């Protein structure tokens, strides 16, 4: 999924997520395709980066593949931001998503973010700013 398209999808998902008070798209600035989320009184900023499926071109969309939602673990809003975001994405039961990987859960890693793997071979990287 293209970064702008996935960012807009996340805005819709997060607006319907418990404990979320506000979601805004951040236009301009140093981070393209960014958004800010206020959940349980804490502000989080995320940047969406996309990776096309192998052989795909930017001038034509990659067809979506629907094959069932990914497994996920719900995390309280006061937990790790990337684990919480992954849980919010998984709770929306996206049929186009194969799996969700939380960066801070990787052994020896300190970065916070989420990789969303789609059934059609595309990926979205959600980097915590």
Task: Explain what you see.
This protein has 129 residues and is α+β, with helices and mostly antiparallel strands. 19% of the residues lie in helices and 32% in strands. The chain has 2 helices and 6 strands. The protein has a 6-stranded antiparallel beta sheet, covered by helices on one side. The protein is globular, with a radius of gyration of 14 Å. The two termini are 21 Å apart. The model has no long low-confidence stretch (mean pLDDT 90).
How is this fold's topology laid out?
Elements: H1 3-15, E1 20-26, E2 34-39, E3 42-51, H2 81-91, E4 97-102, E5 113-118, E6 123-128
What characteristics describe this protein?
129 residues; alpha+beta; six-stranded antiparallel β-sheet
Head-to-tail CA distance between termini:
21 Å
**Amount of helix:** 10-25%
Low-confidence stretches: none
What fraction of the residues are assigned to beta strands by DSSP?
25-35%
Tell how many strands the DSSP assignment holds.
6
The DSSP helix count reads: 2
Per the principal axes of the C-alpha atoms, what is the gross shape? globular
Please give a quick description of this structure.
The protein is built from two helices and six strands. It has 129 residues and is α+β, with helices and mostly antiparallel strands.
